[in-house]
Amino acid sequence: MSQTTVSLIDVSTYLPGEPISAEYYAQFAESDELRDNLMFRAPKFRHHVGPDETAIDMIERATTGLVERHGQDVIANVDILISHTQMPDVPFYGAGGGIAHRLGMRPDWVLDLHNGGCAAFVLGMQTARQLLSSGAGRTALVAVAQNAAGQIFDQPGVRRKAQAAVPGDGAAVGLLTLSDESPILDVECRTYGEYAGDMAIAVDPHRKWWEPGPGEGYIGFTESKITKVLARGNRQVPEVSYTVCDRIGLRTKDIDLLVTNQPNRAFLRNWCEALELPSTRHVHTFDECGNLFAAGIPVNLDRAIQNGHVSPGDTVLMAAFAHAGDFAAAAAVRWGGRPT
């Protein structure tokens, strides 16, 4: 390996509160023209961020595992901090500065990403990889927090909608180093700007999201938009996955572990079929956690490590698409094993 090889050496995660069952939403459900759509078939359980729990709180709790395995000094001496928060606690700025302070860091680089959406962890890995390879430091932390389920989707008016029962909350961090311990083999990131306006906040009666007034904001899904999102997601995730596999000289059917975001069961099934993989090699936590947005990939990878579904030397492919299909990314890692 080159001296500029960058490795994802560990991940650590956090799920807030006790699991919330599908019955919780069933008691609020009202007639919804999208209720039978396969996009909104509810998971059995999900977690919700606490009423006073911030994104920084979630990231701090997610980092506990890294501290236990690598020591506080490794975290304190991180050179590059990259964060993504699904729903920023303050609209004008991200959580990066607060995370650095809470974790006792003095990083040279603090970057908040927002456009990565459900693929933000892979985008964060690629950003960290480029910076570390260029000499910007030796260690990076990628931190993601999904905190919209217990805030946006549990509003009294919104939780009556079919879309409310699918999201779950969680947070995760990934530790990257300039080393060949668990090398990132390749990354592909693609932006589809033509779709950037297809995800919107809807309020009834209509108003801008920041304007005062009646009505609660939710995602403005329609049957037409859902059809387009399904088509894009079914296409984009396999496309970026095949591109990465082609460049590293690996057939998709030879991937040892596939880790993706998890919007719904249909995508999970279709992606396996498109990549010619048995479901046993595609780890997910949809029924326990719901749609975890950007936290989905690291939470699922952490679960796979804990359950022994990935071994040192295995090739792990991570892939996801974001929003209504305006971004997609995939990354391959040769897993080096977790320190004990």
Automatic annotation (TrEMBL):
Keywords: Acyltransferase, Transferase
GO molecular function: 3-oxoacyl-[acyl-carrier-protein] synthase activity
Domain Beta-ketoacyl-[acyl-carrier-protein] synthase III C-terminal: 245-335
Domain of life, source organism: Bacteria
An individual GO BP term: fatty acid biosynthetic process
InterPro entries: ACP_syn_III_C, ACP_syn_III_N, Thiolase-like
Pfam families named in the record: ACP_syn_III (PF08545), ACP_syn_III_C (PF08541)
Residue ranges of domain Beta-ketoacyl-[acyl-carrier-protein] synthase III N-terminal in the record: 115-193
Record bears the keyword DNA-binding: no
Official protein name in the record: 3-oxoacyl-ACP synthase
